[in-house]
Amino acid sequence: MKTMIVFLLIILAFSYGQESDPRDPREIIEKVRIYRLTKELDLSTEQAIEFFPKLNELHKIDSEFRKRRQEILVHLKDLLGTGAPDVEIKESLGAYEKILKERVERQIKKMREIQTMLTPSQQAKYLIFQDEFEREIREMIKEVKRLQPR
Predict the structure, then answer these.
(1) What pTM, to 2 d.p., does this model score?
(2) C-alpha distances out from residue 5 to 119, 137, 148, Å
(3) In a domain, 148, yes or no
(4) Percentage of the chain modeled with pLDDT above 90
(5) At CA 53, angle to CA 52 and CA 56, rounded to 5?
(6) Residue 78 belongs to what domain range?
(7) Rounded distance, CA 6 to CA 122, Å?
(8) Do 135 and 54 touch, CB atoms closer than 8 A?
(9) How far apart, in whole angstroms, are the C-alpha atoms of residue 56 and residue 64?
(10) Is 40 a member of any domain?
(11) Cβ-count burial of 34 within 10 angstroms (0-12 exposed, 13-18 middle, 19+ buried)?
């Protein structure tokens, strides 16, 4: 019962102010992740209230990075397509290196914040869960692709 209440609070917190499509596979996966993570870590209500907003911020860091990375890659393709000088290409490569470094620094900072709210055992369970959950999702995607008619 406690887990269900925590889960519902978390879902409400994540969905507040966000446009969402309940059929979007990414949203379904994220809701399953939250539910399973809550159970796996055996989070208290207080921990969940602190933990999931930080986890959401961690996801935002990745999302922002992917967006900026894509912009730089498009710019690099344009530069290569127009025969731009190496100086301009190096600038874009430098911009990519900069956003990569920022991403890692922000992720480390956010992970340290998350670590302060979890016990060492919960921290270990979190890392293992993330790895296993992502592997499961990759396997499901492979299976769906395999079953799709060509």
Answers:
(1) 0.72
(2) 21, 26, 37
(3) no
(4) 65
(5) 85
(6) 2-136
(7) 16
(8) no
(9) 12
(10) yes
(11) buried
d(CA 87, CA 41): 50
Length of the chain: 150
The count of domains in the chain is 1
In a domain, 121, yes or no: yes
> Is 24 a residue whose pLDDT tops 80?
no
The CATH number given to whatever domain includes residue 16 is 1.10.287
Encode pLDDT of 84-121 as tens digits. Answer: 999 999 999 999 999 999 999 999 999 999 999 999 99
Tell me what the pLDDT averaged over the chain comes to: 86
Residue carrying the six token digits 């055992």: 121
Determine the residue type at 105: E
Cα-Cα-Cα-Cα torsion 114, 118, 122, 125, nearest 10 degrees, comes to 0
Q: Which amino acid type is present at position 147?
A: L
Quote the tokens at residue 76: 């690099």
Written as one letter, the residue type at 143 is E
Please name the helix (run of DSSP H) or strand (run of DSSP E) that holds residue 138, with its range, or none.
Answer: helix 120-147
Sheet strands (E) in 58-131? none
Amino acid (1-letter code) at residue 81 = G
**Per the domain annotation, does 145 fall within a domain?**
no
